[in-house]
């Protein structure tokens, strides 16, 4: 029986009342397993670990597991009981910290408790819940058995309690694995004496077969610990080295699992396993083992044969972090530098997920730093960290205007003492794999040697020192209508390129942008501790000019920065400069020109008249309304005494200040001109200039009213024959129904108005393809055309290929313009209205009611055709349920022979009926068109025009709420598909994927 007293600790089960007790059905075993089970039960019952149970509410099966020695071990399947027990949140120690705390000691003693869990009693009321079934009867545990959910937490709570004050000092404990450590051999016996005294006091027993006392090294928690440092478990290394070439998916999974167990010792472990991950893609049992996999396998074995020795950091020591980013993973190595050596402490590697693969390289490097700050948090908290990098990480995380995730990362890293320092040229073998931080594409070597440029007027200029590494700097500036910016590319001596862009919040010329680019490049190079720089620019005013083609990289970055929008995803860090780097003063030449006031002023002051008599007469008549006061021309007003006369340039300033100045209200042109007039200003073209200014005001155009008057005449859609042209659309999401369906796909034939629909749980291209094939093609034949909106389910490669195979013409409505597919939109409204009225409160039953709604639509009279869709499709009216409850004439007087003759006649006349319905439909559409076209206010554009596009739900910034703009852009018209439908291109030069209807566009005045 165990000797640890119950008042010290006992294991309690906190079973949740939300779970019902489970009695597992007895399993059958072979004779050998039964015999081993009986022997184990007798042994456990003899020593008092178990007792017989009566009427247990929880019952588990016994499971016999083969030992490595060939014997059997009896376990219990407590799966159901563990589900009902909440997790005990008592923390287990971090293995990495325990291993670090153990390394570097002269003598060690390793101990293991004898059947550690069985030395703790079960709480008596919970003992019956551990009941298990055997062929001899039911038994339950008096002691804590293996397999219970919170057994490890209970044992850790015990050792923390009895060894309190000594853990972390002279010993380390992880559940039932104990270790006594000593810095010197002289102290070890005293430390062991203290530990044995505690074991004796609490009567805890050890397993002598698993104990080792007074040794210099040993295995602890899967690591080899010694005074030298931390080594990988030789057995785990041998498992990889001796492993045969994988042949199945399971073999590769076994290999990657073995690598994961040693990832702390493997530099760039994820990169080394990339070929194995590729082989696992597809989930097939049989794999394709490529030459790349074989090379990676052999390289992994060679690496593991000389796995590095890891060091232990000293308290308060500065640690150094190397980062590496490849196309598929981020890696790092944490090192210490005692006496100019570089000793690794921890290797970490992580595969990039789908979204992370699309991050810009510098953001991936930032992600690597954040991931390792989380993974190695104890090291980051206890030590100062110096990140050795030749990339501008500090500028990316601190200085530029950065995106949301970078702000979050910068805040997260702010709690640690992190410094960014340039990476030294010399490196030890421990960090040999981290030579390249950002693994670049293959760089073609250049034969062009570094040359020196000595300006003619500086014969004594200092030449480059060939013994010092030379950095390269390409700069360029850009100023255009979209804005001003600069780009630069800093090339390190080892060929890595650092891209940087600047966006100016102030207007500059091209030459001024070039200067700003040069100054920013020098600041960046200085922060990277560059000593010698060769600068390239395509501006003769900055440095010795080079051809633009040799500066294309920086030129592209400059154009990007000048046109970038805050909402555009960035591939390079973009810094926003609010003020110029230099303060300049301007000297402007004053030039006087004749204005509209000059003739009037000269006549009133000097009596000067034009030579032309008609012009002189006109001037005398006009001047009667003006006067000169203190050499200033005024106009006599009717509502105000005097209006000061201004030039057109002065008037533009007045209008601009009133319209969009500090107190501007962005009023209309008439109101704007009236306000200027009321303030005492006048010039002849006030209203015309106000109208022009309001038209060109960017904010007025972006926040202007959205017109609801149609801009194009109605274009009816005509179907040539029945079931030739279908409209397709989706309804949902709706309340979840049986089978987890919450969407419906709806199709309507444009000729007969026949409707098909099907409930769907998911709306994928495969589901849409199956619906079209089953409900349209297999029932009514292959259609000529299908009209849909621009949903991903319809505008997908899979659905396009399906339509191409069947030679179905696929047409898409303009985005956000449901009128282009109005027939199916109208049917959607009818379907939803019918379902609402039929369901009342049982909204989840809509899939069962959908066929009834379709039946009602198919048998209802349509105004456009004058017939029901059923009769248009089949030549006669359907028998509806009311004719069964109250028989009609045709059901009462039904005669098979006469009915067959009448049906044949109806089918013969069906084409005529359809033709008449088609004529009626055309007349109906003409009436609708006349009514619609009466309200049209034509609006059209030409290729090359700039337009604004109405903000849609997809492009609306939800953070702005109701204060957001109504229009976005501008966009350039690059194509006209048909009247009222245009193809657009953004100001960044990228064409929009879909054409847009004129209803969503308006002219943009620059």
Automatic annotation (TrEMBL):
In this chain the RNase H type-1 domain maps to 467-602
Where is each Reverse transcriptase domain found? 1-225
- One Gene Ontology molecular-function label: nucleic acid binding
One matching Pfam family:
Integrase_H2C2
**Domain of life of the source:** Eukaryota
Among InterPro entries, the record links this protein to:
DNA/RNA_pol_sf, Integrase_cat-core, Integrase_H2C2, Rev_trsase/Diguanyl_cyclase, RNaseH-like_sf, RNaseH_domain, RNaseH_sf, RT_dom
A biological-process GO annotation = DNA integration
Domain named Integrase catalytic is located at: 718-877
Q: Which PANTHER family match?
A: RIBONUCLEASE H
Query: Under which name does UniProt file this protein?
Result: Uncharacterized protein
User: Which species is this record about?
Assistant: Prunus dulcis
């Amino acid at each position: 029986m165990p000797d640890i007293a119950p008042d010290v600790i006992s294991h309690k089960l906190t079973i949740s009342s939300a779970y019902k007790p489970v009695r597992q059905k007895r399993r059958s075993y072979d004779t050998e397993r039964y015999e081993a089970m009986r022997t184990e039960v007798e042994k456990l019952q003899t020593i008092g670990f178990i007792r017989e149970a009566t009427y247990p509410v929880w019952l588990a099966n016994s499971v016999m597991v083969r030992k490595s020695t060939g014997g059997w071990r009896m376990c219990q399947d407590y799966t159901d009981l563990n589900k009902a027990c909440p997790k005990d949140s008592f923390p287990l120690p971090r293995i990495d910290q325990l291993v670090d705390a153990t390394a570097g000691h002269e003598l060690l003693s390793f101990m293991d408790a004898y059947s550690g869990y069985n030395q703790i009693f079960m709480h008596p009321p919970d003992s019956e819940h551990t009941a298990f079934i055997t062929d001899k009867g039911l038994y339950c545990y008096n002691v804590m058995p293996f397999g219970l959910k919170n057994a490890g937490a209970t044992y850790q709570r015990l050792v923390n309690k009895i060894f309190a004050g000594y853990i972390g000092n002279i010993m380390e404990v992880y559940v039932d694995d104990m270790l006594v450590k000593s810095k010197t051999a002289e102290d070890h016996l005293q430390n062991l004496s203290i530990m044995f005294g505690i074991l004796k006091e609490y009567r805890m027993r050890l397993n002598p077969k698993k104990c080792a006392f007074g040794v210099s090294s040993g295995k602890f928690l899967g690591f080899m610990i010694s005074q030298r440092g931390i080594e990988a478990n030789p057995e785990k290394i041998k498992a990889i080295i001796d492993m045969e070439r994988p042949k199945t998916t399971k073999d590769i999974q076994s290999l990657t699992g073995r690598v994961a167990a040693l990832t702390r010792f493997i530099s760039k472990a994820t990169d080394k396993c990339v070929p194995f991950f590729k082989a696992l893609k597809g989930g097939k049992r049989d794999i394709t083992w490529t030459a790349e996999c074989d090379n990676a396998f052999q390289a992994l074995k060679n690496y593991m044969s000389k796995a590095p020795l890891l060091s232990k950091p000293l308290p308060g020591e500065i640690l150094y972090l190397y980062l590496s980013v490849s196309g598929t993973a981020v890696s790092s190595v944490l090192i210490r530098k005692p006496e100019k050596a570089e000793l690794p402490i921890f290797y970490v590697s992580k595969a990039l997920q789908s979204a992370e693969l699309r991050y810009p390289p510098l953001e991936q490097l930032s992600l690597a730093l954040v991931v390792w700050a989380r993974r190695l948090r104890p090291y980051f908290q206890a030590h100062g960290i110096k990140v050795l990098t030749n990339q501008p990480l500090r500028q990316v995380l601190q200085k530029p205007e950065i995106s949301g995730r970078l702000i979050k990362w910068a805040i997260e890293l702010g709690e640690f003492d992190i410094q960014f320092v340039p990476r030294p040229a010399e490196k030890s073998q421990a960090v040999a794999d981290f030579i390249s931080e950002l693994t670049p594409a293959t760089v073609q070597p250049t034969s062009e040697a570094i040359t020196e440029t000595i300006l003619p007027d500086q014969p004594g200029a200092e030449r480059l020192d060939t013994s010092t590494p030379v950095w390269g700097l390409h700069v360029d500036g850009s100023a255009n209508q979209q804005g001003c910016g600069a780009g630069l590319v800093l090339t390190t001596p080892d060929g890595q390129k650092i891209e940087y862009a600047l966006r100016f919040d102030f207007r500059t010329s091209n030459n001024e942008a070039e200067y700003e680019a040069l100054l920013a490049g020098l600041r960046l190079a200085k922060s990277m501790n560059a000593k010698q720089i060769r600068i390239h620019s395509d501006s003769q005013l900055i440095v010795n000019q080079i051809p633009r083609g040799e500066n294309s990289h920086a030129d592209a970055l400059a154009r990007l920065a000048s046109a970038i929008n805050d909402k555009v995803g960035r591939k390079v860090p973009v810094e926003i400069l609010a003020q110029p780097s230099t303060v300049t003063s301007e000297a402007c030449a004053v030039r006087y020109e004749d204005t509209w006031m000059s003739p009037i002023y000269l006549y009133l002051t000097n009596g000067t008249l034009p030579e032309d008599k008609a012009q002189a007469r006109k001037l005398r008549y006009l001047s009667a309304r003006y006067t000169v006061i203190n050499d200033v021309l005024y106009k006599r007003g009717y509502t105000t005494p005097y209006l000061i006369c201004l030039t057109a340039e002065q008037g533009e300033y007045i209008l601009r200040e009133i319209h969009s100045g500090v107190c501007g209200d962005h009023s209309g042109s008439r109101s704007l001109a009236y306000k200027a007039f009321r303030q005492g200003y006048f010039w002849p073209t006030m209203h015309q200039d106000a109208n022009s200014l309001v038209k060109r005001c960017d904010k007025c155009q972006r926040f202007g009213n959205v017109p609801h008057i149609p801009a194009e005449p109605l274009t009816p859609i005509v179907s040539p024959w029945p079931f030739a042209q279908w409209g397709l659309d989706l309804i949902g999401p709706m309340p979840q129904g049986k089978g987890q369906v919450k969407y419906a796909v709806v199709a309507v034939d444009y000729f007969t108005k026949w409707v098909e629909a099907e409930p769907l749980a998911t709306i994928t291209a495969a589901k849409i393809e199956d619906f079209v094939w089953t409900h349209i093609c297999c029932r009514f034949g292959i259609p000529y055309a299908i009209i849909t909106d621009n949903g991903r389910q319809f505008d997908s490669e899979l659905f396009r290929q399906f339509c191409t195979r069947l030679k179905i013409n696929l047409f898409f409505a303009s985005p956000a313009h449901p009128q282009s597919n109005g027939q199916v939109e109208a049917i959607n409204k009818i379907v939803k209205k019918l379902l609402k009225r039929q369901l009342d409160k049982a909204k989840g039953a809509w899939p069962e009611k959908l066929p009834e709604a379709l039946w009602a639509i198919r048998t209802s009279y349509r105004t456009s055709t004058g017939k029901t869709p059923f009769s248009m499709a089949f030549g006669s009216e359907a028998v509806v349920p009311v004719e069964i409850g109250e028989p009609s004439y045709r059901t009462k007087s039904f005669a098979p022979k006469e009915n067959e003759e009448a049906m044949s006649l109806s089918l013969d006349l069906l084409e005529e009926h359809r033709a008449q319905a088609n004529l009626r439909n055309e007349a109906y559409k003409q009436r609708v068109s006349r009514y619609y076209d009466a309200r049209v206010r034509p609006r059209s554009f030409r290729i090359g025009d700039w337009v604004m596009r109405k903000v849609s739900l997809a492009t609306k910034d939800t953070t702005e709420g109701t204060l957001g703009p109504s229009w976005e852009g501008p966009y350039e018209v690059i194509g006209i598909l048909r009247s009222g439908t245009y193809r657009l291109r953004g100001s960044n030069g990228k064409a929009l994927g879909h054409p847009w209807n004129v209803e969503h566009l308006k002219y943009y005045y620059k």
